[in-house]
Amino acid sequence: LAPPGGAKPSPQGSSGGEKTETSDRPDVQDQAAYSLPIIAGALTAASALCLGGATIASLLPFQISLIPITTLLTLAFATARPQLSARLAPAGAALGTFCMQLFFGTTGAAGRIGPVIERAPSLFFFSAVQIAVHFLFITGTGFLFSIPLRSLLLASNANVGGPSTAAGMATAKRWNDLKVQALLVGIAGYACGTFLALPLFPLLCSICSCQIRP
Fold this sequence. Notes:
Layout: H1 13-23, H2 26-33, H3 36-59, H4 66-80, H5 82-110, H6 113-145, H7 149-160, H8 163-172, H9 179-207
């Protein structure tokens, strides 16, 4: 029997539609992004960049940490090969998060709770000063330049948590038009913060009359 209204059934049937939906499913794309070749490629690229940074740092006539050199090499690689970097980014982020959590776990396991409790008040005061300065700067800048509140919140998140948490916040709040901006602000902080922090430490120690051990 013909359906009401004279509409004809689709000649492809239900199997054709299911095939199209299956090929466009997000979970299938996620599995491809975390496949074994992609994970191996991300690990190989990260190892090569770290090795290159350590080699260049050892060959320079002056003493410098390998961290800024590796950061510079990573930025150059992402700029020169954006498509390859985009393919390796999801697996690389997962591997980086795992290694970071492993580092935090081993550092905490090697520590002692007594010195932490003893120094907790000073650490709390230091963190409170950081958050207060950050809050005053964000709110003052937003009031001075009439920046929307959601842009200020994402900028604050990118400054404290990085690009991944800022993009997650934009997705959770459905601010899809600000996801790219949140990622760029967080990545810019990673790119500039390392180079600014290295000379800042001896400067602060010289101001506070601290003794820097080699």
